[in-house]
């Protein structure tokens, strides 16, 4: 099996060098860019398995590149971890809402970052026990990693796909935010529970069509968390 390719988009050479050493020791193929223009060229040419994207970059912000990647069909499925010195909650939430799958605040420990990369790649590659799951006209195909509402193909990011896949494979049961983090992100990944709320909002929005709102299948269970169900619950 070939080594997974990690693109590091970071303007500070010392951080790139540190990440190169950590990633190569962990058996990843390392490629790098120091601005969003070079990064986009590498993403199109190299198709990395995951992107580590700095928030502040010369020639434009990492958020700008993230928006572009999530708009384009051939790049929207690539998982992205934001590297940011901005610890404020609104910046973290903004990155997640645009499409980031995870974030790491500087300074960070390389081992923690490697653990998050491993968990995210496992999530992206994980197959469901069922190849095709259908509920009320909403169909999830695990092999092609596509979701359909009737004949309409819906646009879901990799994290929203994995979250929906888990929900549809485990309907009618209420899960706490902590349980969802463990099941979808992995028990060794440490994220704030508010991360779940951001991805639930994004998933519900992605499941809305002109003809039906499949986002309503994801129900908020007061005092517990969330449940996927086609039934009415009090």
TrEMBL record:
InterPro entries in alphabetical order: CheY-like_superfamily, OmpR/PhoB-type_DNA-bd, Sig_transdc_resp-reg_C-effctor, Sig_transdc_resp-reg_PhoB, Sig_transdc_resp-reg_receiver, WalR-like, WH-like_DNA-bd_sf
In this chain the OmpR/PhoB-type domain maps to: 130-230
- Give the primary localization class: cytoplasm
User: Where in this chain does the record put each Response regulatory domain?
Assistant: 5-121
Which domain of life, per UniProt?
A: Bacteria
Checking PROSITE patterns in the record gives: OMPR_PHOB, RESPONSE_REGULATORY
Q: Which regions of the protein are recorded as binding DNA?
A: 130-230
One Pfam assignment: Trans_reg_C
**Keyword terms, alphabetized:** Activator, Cytoplasm, DNA-binding, Phosphate transport, Phosphoprotein, Transcription, Transcription regulation, Transport, Two-component regulatory system
For the modification 4-aspartylphosphate, the affected residues are 54
Enumerate the subcellular locations listed in this protein's record, separating them with semicolons: Cytoplasm
Classification via SUPFAM superfamilies:
C-terminal effector domain of the bipartite response regulators, CheY-like
This chain belongs to which protein, by name? Phosphate regulon transcriptional regulatory protein PhoB
Query: Which organism does this sequence originate in?
Result: Candidatus Seongchinamella marina
């Amino acid at each position: 099996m070939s080594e997974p390719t990690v693109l590091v988009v970071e303007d500070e050479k010392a951080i790139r060098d540190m990440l190169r050493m950590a990633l190569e020791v962990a058996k990843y193929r390392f490629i790098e860019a120091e601005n969003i223009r070079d990064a986009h060229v590498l993403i199109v040419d190299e198709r990395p398995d995951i992107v580590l994207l700095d928030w502040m970059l010369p020639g434009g912000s990492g958020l700008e590149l993230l928006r572009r990647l999530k708009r384009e069909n051939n790049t929207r499925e690539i998982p992205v971890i934001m590297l940011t010195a901005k610890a404020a909650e609104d910046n973290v939430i903004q990155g997640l809402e645009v499409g980031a799958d995870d974030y790491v605040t500087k300074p960070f420990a390389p081992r923690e970052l490697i653990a998050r990369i491993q968990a995210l790649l496992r999530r992206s590659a994980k197959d469901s026990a069922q190849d095709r799951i259908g509920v009320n006209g909403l169909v999830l195909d695990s092999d092609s990693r596509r979701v359909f509402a009737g004949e309409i193909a819906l646009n879901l990011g990799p994290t929203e796909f994995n979250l929906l896949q888990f929900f549809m494979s485990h309907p009618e049961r209420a899960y706490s935010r902590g349980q969802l983090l463990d099941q979808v992100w992995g028990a060794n990944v440490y994220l704030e529970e508010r991360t779940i709320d951001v991805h639930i909002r994004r998933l519900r929005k992605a499941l809305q069509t002109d003809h039906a709102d499949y986002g309503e299948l994801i129900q908020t269970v007061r005092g517990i968390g969330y449940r996927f169900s086609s039934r009415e619950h009090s």
